[in-house]
Amino acid sequence: MNTEVTQEQVSFYRENGFIVLEDFLTPAEVETWRAALDDAIKKRGRQRILAREEQMDDDAYYNKVFVQRVNLWQDNEKIRDLIVDHRLGKLAATLAGVDGMRLWHDQALIKQPWANPTGWHLDNPFWSWSSRDAISLWVALDDVTMQNGCLYFLPSTQKTARFDNASIGHNIGDIFKIYPEWAKIEAVPALMKAGSCSFHNGLIAHGAGPNMTPGWRRAMTCGFMPDGSTFNGQQNILSKEQLAKLKVGDLLEDDKQNPLLYHRTKPSLASRA
Ligand SMILES: O=C(O)CCC(=O)C(=O)O
Ligand SMILES: [Fe+2]
Questions:
Q1: Which of 73, 93, 47, 50 is nearest to 266 (CA)?
Q2: Whole-model pTM?
Q3: Residue 73 maps to which CATH number?
Q4: Mean pLDDT in the chain?
C-alpha cells in the first residue's frame, strides 16, 4: 500500500476537494482486499448497518444504487486488519490538515450489473458529527470506467457547501435545488484502475454513474472523523443504545467504536504499530 503523498498532491486536494492516487494497492493487495470484501459481504448477509436493525427491501431504488454494507471491520477480522491501519489515518490527516483521525465507518459500496446511478450528495451531513475536515477514502477493487459507475466530483464545492444535503434518491440532481450556484460547474470523472483510490472532502458534491455493464464495480470506502469531533444529534450508524447515551456536544472518543488511527502527539494505533 502506497500511503505517501507529495506536497503538490496535498495542495491539489485542499484546492479541489478530491484527489485520485494511482497504484495505491499492489496487484497482490487488490486480490487480498477483494477476497476479504467478498468474504465479509457473504457473512454479513442482508444487514446493511451492523448496529441497526432494519428490513431490507431488495427492490427499493436505493438498494439498486449499490449493495451497501457498513462497518465490516466490526464483524470481519480480515477487513479489520486492512482498515484499522494507522497509515490510512495518517494519510487522511495529512490531506485534511488535522492532528488526528478516527475511523468513522467503513462501507462496501458495490454496484451490481445495471445498478442505478448514485445521486449528487455530500457525505458529512449524513454523519453524527459535523466537520469541514471530514474526509472519505474510496478504493477501486475493479477497474472503474464511465460505463460501470465511476465517481464524479464538482471541484471546490467543499469551499461553499453548507451542511444542507440532498438524499441519494430518484432525482440525481436534487442537490442543485439546494445549491443552484453549482449547476454550471463541469463534473470531473474519477476513472481508476483496480487498486487506485480517491480521497474526497466530506462536503464536496459527488455522485456516480449507473452501471451500464454486465460486470461488477466493487469499492471499499471509509469515512474518517477528525479527532475532537462532537455529537450533532444524528443517529447515522449508531445503535439505539449508543444514541441514548449521547448528548449533543459530547466528544465522540470511544476507541471501540471509532478507533484513533493516527495522532501527531497523542497515543494512538500508530504508537502501537
Ligand atoms: O460508490 C458510489 O457509488 C458512491 C460513493 C460515495 O458516495 C462515497 O464514497 O462517498
Ligand atoms: Fe458519498
A1: 93
A2: 0.96
A3: 2.60.120.620
A4: 95
